[in-house]
Amino acid sequence: MKTSMLQGAKIVSTGSATPSIKVSNEQISSIVETSDEWIFTRTGIKERRILTEYGHSVTNLAVEAALQAITEVSMNPADIDLLILATSSPNDLFGSASSVQNQIGAINALAFDLTAACSGFVIGLVTAAQFIFNGTYKNVLVIGADVLSKWVDWSDRSTCILFGDAAGAVILQSCSINSNSILNFHLKTDGNYTDYLSIAYKENLTPHPILNLYQGSFKYISMNGKEVYKFAVSQVPLSIISCLKDIKMSINDIDWLLLHQANERILIAVAEKLAISRDKIISNLSEYGNTSAASIPLALNEVVKLNKISNDDIIVIAGFGAGLTWGTIILRW
Ligand code: COA
């Protein structure tokens, strides 16, 4: 992290929201040929939440999570300077952040979407931190929210078992440099593998009859599961090691490992590669599945509300996913 800092940044509150409708592995087994045993042993997932209300979208979850975080610190929404909505499932391709800004009354906030799939929250938090470090803003609301249930092909058993809907939010606030909690970050993209995980826009075969223009629509999620798995277990440990090394920290300094909740086997494999004990892994996969950009703030909010995290604990956060893009943040709580 090569940043000239005028101010430090710290997370002052968290929030999350999930739909009430649970879908169990048994229920999925009635839609596609699979079983609770297959899904649980390969992924660690037991159930996921899906947004079923007509007219509800990612913004409903994002608003609920944001209001929780705002209420927790009794903040006036008008004091939020910037709102970043990390999502890859907006309900408006021009962006959904402005609708969230309007609904929560963050009337003074610049609001924009950030599209980076499952790494969206990590990149959103790093982006927010830059605006704080350089003195531009004091209060930034970062939301990770996705409703991939709307983008999954429910007849494709290789993907529909994995994903769930949720939102998580944090408020990142300026503080003195000595109290800064974003100690370092490391972000990477390798566009060679963009096809491994995508929701591609596909053009129609026939063009517009007069303009000769090809229009089309977005298709369902497609994924090369094996390659994504290999990528995650090889690149994430390297990213974490390099991020720690930069600031002369070691694996022994880590109190908590908070990885993107994609697959329990990935969490365990990464922890084993780094020789981090399993009791330091934060995981709520069994209940929510992979909630994309929401997974890290959702899990963070859960452990914070359970008072598991103590002041000064070192949390290593790592996101990975489509792009392929991945990244680590070292956080002092
Ligand atoms: N139920 C039962 N069988 C299934 C199945 C399901 N839901 N999905 C696939 N299978 C079958 C396959 O058809 C294949 O059968 P075959 O051997 O007869 O061809 C067999 O199970 C093995 O499939 P494979 O894709 O090799 O399984 P896997 O061990 O790689 O596990 C994943 C699949 C998706 C669980 C695993 O690859 C994974 O977790 N990858 C990472 C995905 C991820 O995290 N993506 C998001 C990143 S942000």
UniProtKB/TrEMBL annotation:
Subcellular location as annotated = Plastid, Chloroplast
- Which Pfam family, just one, is annotated for this protein? ACP_syn_III
Chemical reaction(s) catalysed: malonyl-[ACP] + acetyl-CoA + H(+) = 3-oxobutanoyl-[ACP] + CO2 + CoA
Q: What class of enzyme is it?
A: transferase
| PANTHER family in alphabetical order | 3-OXOACYL-[ACYL-CARRIER-PROTEIN] SYNTHASE (PTHR43091), BETA-KETOACYL-[ACYL-CARRIER-PROTEIN] SYNTHASE III, CHLOROPLASTIC (PTHR43091:SF1)
Beta-ketoacyl-[acyl-carrier-protein] synthase III C-terminal domain mapped to chain residues: 245-333
Which Gene Ontology terms of cellular component type are present? chloroplast
> What does the annotation say about its assembly with partners?
Homodimer.
Q: Which species is the source of this protein?
A: Kapraunia schneideri
Please give the name of this protein: Beta-ketoacyl-[acyl-carrier-protein] synthase III
* Domain remarks in the Swiss-Prot or TrEMBL record: The last Arg residue of the ACP-binding site is essential for the weak association between ACP/AcpP and FabH.
Which protein family is it in? Answer: Belongs to the thiolase-like superfamily. FabH family.
Q: Which domain of life is it from?
A: Eukaryota
Keywords, sorted A to Z: Acyltransferase, Chloroplast, Fatty acid biosynthesis, Fatty acid metabolism, Lipid biosynthesis, Lipid metabolism, Multifunctional enzyme, Plastid, Transferase
Question: What role is this protein assigned?
Answer: Catalyzes the condensation reaction of fatty acid synthesis by the addition to an acyl acceptor of two carbons from malonyl-ACP. KAS III catalyzes the first condensation reaction which initiates fatty acid synthesis and may therefore play a role in governing the total rate of fatty acid production. Possesses both acetoacetyl-ACP synthase and acetyl transacylase activities. Catalyzes the condensation reaction of fatty acid synthesis by the addition to an acyl acceptor of two carbons from malonyl-ACP. Catalyzes the first condensation reaction which initiates fatty acid synthesis and may therefore play a role in governing the total rate of fatty acid production. Possesses both acetoacetyl-ACP synthase and acetyl transacylase activities. Its substrate specificity determines the biosynthesis of branched-chain and/or straight-chain of fatty acids.
Q: Which residues form the active site?
A: 118, 260, 290
Question: What EC number is given for this enzyme?
Answer: 2.3.1.180
